[in-house]
Every structure is written in C-alpha cells, then in structure tokens.
Amino acid sequence: MTSRLRGLTAKQAVVTVAVVLVLSAAGGMVELFFDWHAKRSQVQAQVSQIIGAIDGSAVEAAYQLSPQLAERVVEGLLDYEIIQAARLQDNFGDLLAERRREGQAAATSRLAELLFGDILVYRRDLVRLGAVGKTDVGRLEVRLSPQAVASDFYARGRVNVALGLARALGIVALVVGIFYAMITRPLLRLAQAVTRVDPGQPGRHLVPALAGHGHDELGELVDSLNALLTSSQRGLNERDAAQAELMALTHDLERRVAERTREVEAANEEIRSLNLILKAENVRMGTELDVSRRIQQMVLPTAGELAAIGGLDVATYMEPANEVGGDYYDILHGENGRVRFGIGDVTGHGLESGVVMLMTQSAVRTMITGDEDGAERVLDVLNRTIFNNIQRMGSDKNLTLALLDYRPGPPDGETDPGISSHMRISGQHESVIVARQGGAIELIDTMDLGMPLGLVDEIGCFVNEVTVALRPGDTVILYTDGITEAADDRHRLYGLDRLCDVISANWQRPAEAIKDSIIADVKAHIGAQPLYDDLTLIVFKQIAERPALAEPVN
C-alpha cells in the first residue's frame, strides 16, 4: 500500500488535483474579474445614458436657477433603482435640489464599496451653448446604490464558484484516468526496457517500440535516442547557414546606412539654406516691429499734457513685454477741470495686439473729442467699431477697457462738505484702487460695469456706471494685469494684495513717487525673469488745495 502511494500514478494524481484546483481557482478569479469589469462598464454606460437623457433639463434648471425644475430632474433620476442620491448645483456652487433614496445609506456593504466605490459617484459640469460659445452653468452629481450595482455580480459569482468546483472535480477524475492509460503505464514499460540496454554497447540492444505508440511522442523518443548524432550535425549545418545569412544582411544594412547618410547631408544643406532665408525675414520683421513700437509710444500722453491738468498730480508708466505691447491708456483734459482716463488690455501682445491697441486709442479719442457723454453710448460704439475691424482682420483678439470721467465738485445729491470731486467709472477691466487718507484701500470691482470689447457686436445692455466720491489727497491707481500677474522664478504671482500694500505704504507721497515705488517692487519681485505681459500703470492724486482750472491741452 505504501509503495502504491509513492508510485508515479499516485504522484500524478496528487499533482493533477493540485494543478486543476489552482487553475480552476485562477480561472474562476479571471472570470470573476471579467464579470466585474463587464459590470463596471455596464454600470458606467447605463449611468451615462441616464445622465445624457436628463442633461438638457439639468442645464436649463441650472441656467434658469429654477429649484422646481431642478427638483423634477433629481426626482426623475431616483426613478432608476441603481441611483441612490442626486444633487444639482448652479455655477455659483449653490444647491438647487438634492434627493436621496431612503433606507440604503445604512445598508452599504464594505465589499460593494471596495469593488465599485470608484464608480459610485458621477459629476458632470453642465454647459450651455450660446451665441458667445460654451457657458458653465452648474454641476450635476449622482451617487449610485452599491447594493443595486453589486447584486447581480454577487449572484453570478456564487454560480461561477459552484460550477468551477464541479468542473474541477470532474476534470481531476478524467485527467487522472486518461494520463494513466495513455502515458503513465507506457512510461513504466519504457523505463523497464531502458534498464535492459547495455551501457557499453547501446546499439546492440535498441529500445523496442512500444505497442500502439509508434507514431506518437513516446515513439519519437525511442527514435531520437538512435538519431542523436545526426540531429547534432543538422544543427551545426543550420548554424553555418544562419551565419552566412547574417553576414549578407550586415552588408545590406551598411549599404542602406550609407544611402541614408547621403540623404541626411542633402537635407541639412537645404535646412541651412532655409535658415539664411529665415534670418533675412527676421531682420525685415524686426524693422516693421520697431516702427510699430515707435508709433505706439508717439500716441501716449506727453509729460506736458499731464503737467497741464490742474488739481491733479498724474504719473504714468508703460513697458511692453514684447516688441509691440497690447496695453492701452490715454488721458484727455477737457473743460472746467474735467479729465477722462482710459485703460485697457488687448489679449496677447505683439504686432497684432499693438494694431488693436492703436485702433482703440483712435476710437476713444474720436468719441470723447466729439463730446460723447453717455458711458453706454461710448462703449457700445467703441465695441461695434473694434468688433467690425477685428472681423475684417480675421483676428480673435479682444480687450478689456475701463473709462473714468473725473470731475471737480461733489456728485449730484452729495452734501458732505469734505468731498471735493468725483469720478464715474464704466467698462470692464481690473479693479480700480482708491487710496484714502491714512492709507486705507478701497477696491472698485469693474466686472459688472461692462464686458470685453470685440467679442460680440452688441454690449449696450451690459454697460453700467458707478460714481466714486473723492476727497483732497485721495489717490486713484489704474493698472493692467501685467503688474498683478508678474511672476518670479518660482512662478509666484505679484498679486493684488502686494500691490495694495505698496500703495498703502506710500499713499502720502506724490504720484510720481508712488508710481516709482510700485514699479520698483514689481521689478524686485520678478528679478531676472523676463516680462511675460505688458506693464501699464496710471496714478493720479487729488491735490489737497485745487488751484485755478488750467486750460485744456488740445
């Protein structure tokens, strides 16, 4: 009994049982994996189909800020058994509607969360297509029920395990029987025959053929013992043939490399010729950009114009990031001490942005010189002029633009005797900074005072105006985002807070000194880094005692 347990048949049976069980377990795991993967894909496709079906309604609910429509959307989602909870927010992050299926949250299994936790939550940004492009209007979030997702997977898993075990037992019995009849027993007979071969004269007593195995692997094994030397010689012959073929391939490769080398040299020569052409073209373009830069500097307000403005201490600064900047500013002195300031920023920089800037400067001067007074009218005409020209240029440029109308005297209805003047602000640009007595900073947000010019042909309905009262000594600072977004070598931005700190620390100084302090601090921040955007700054300060009004400079 002990010898039988140690025999080949017993060992083969044990190994077969172990191998089949391992393979069955591995096959079951693979099958479970594919079932799990298929279930995930099915769930994702189903959820995408559900969300896609209600996407339009969700977008409208978020766009209209309608809680009633949002409630219907989330209630419709809970009609699907697979969905446990849903919520709908607008683009401000405010909750419009939220629903959760009762009785499921507490029953969540840890295994279901482990298997499907990463696909239980779906978030979709709600985007509405309009005349000006895509607009983000809100977000839809859906959470799936782990039990609903995993129930079918559990049931199929139990069936697969039972079937796998049954298959394993059947395969073990079948394989053991077949292996014994077809392999184990003939091998035992072959082993007995080999032991009878004379080691000194192996050719005298050849291994006899096994009955029934003359043309299978066992028969081939017997033939291989007698043909070993012949097979070795055949291998040597094949090796020599392979070496000859390798040498031929090596010669062919060397020939192809030589041909490619000649082609590369010809290509390099062509590249050198193109580089010479490109160098000449760069010289020509540099000349054109130099002329454009000089024209841009020529249309800026002169020091004489700024000095002639009575009652205000004015300082300005502009430094383009590239050959031609995309920033714009202008100061126009009118009658009775009235001063109009304009500041804008064209997207990008370079020659094309400089052309849009010059176009804006000419249009603003034309409107204001024509004594056009209404902010809505001025900005609407400016926008249509710039929009039409940009369309003609085939460009995608646009610009932010703010207009300030400074006037001596308090605004209408103001009774505070300490207020000596006021300004009216319209148009969308960076925040206007007002430094009050003592260095207190006041920020006037211009986001709701207009919209970028050149995007659409009609903006009149978006233009608004705000009035800011000024006292003697108050300082107003206008700037472009090239200052607040100036970056150091670690990509840290200069920022609005730091700009306000510099202004607050220097508010009592003259406008020129405040301007110099800001620019010096920006340059210290960026260090050796190049400018990535234009730097433009306007500082004007109420003189404590207003002198007699100066004549306007034409």
UniProtKB/TrEMBL annotation:
GO molecular function: phosphatase activity
Organism: Paramagnetospirillum magneticum (strain ATCC 700264 / AMB-1)
Keywords attached to this entry: Coiled coil, Hydrolase, Membrane, Transmembrane, Transmembrane helix
PANTHER family attached to this UniProt entry: STAGE II SPORULATION PROTEIN E, STAGE II SPORULATION PROTEIN E-RELATED
Coiled-coil intervals, chain numbering: 250-284
GO annotation terms (biological process): signal transduction
Domain HAMP stretches: 181-237
CDD domains xrefs: HAMP
Record's GO cellular component terms: membrane
Name the UniProt record assigns to this protein: Serine phosphatase RsbU
Membrane-crossing segments per the record: 12-34, 161-183
Stretch forming the signal peptide: none
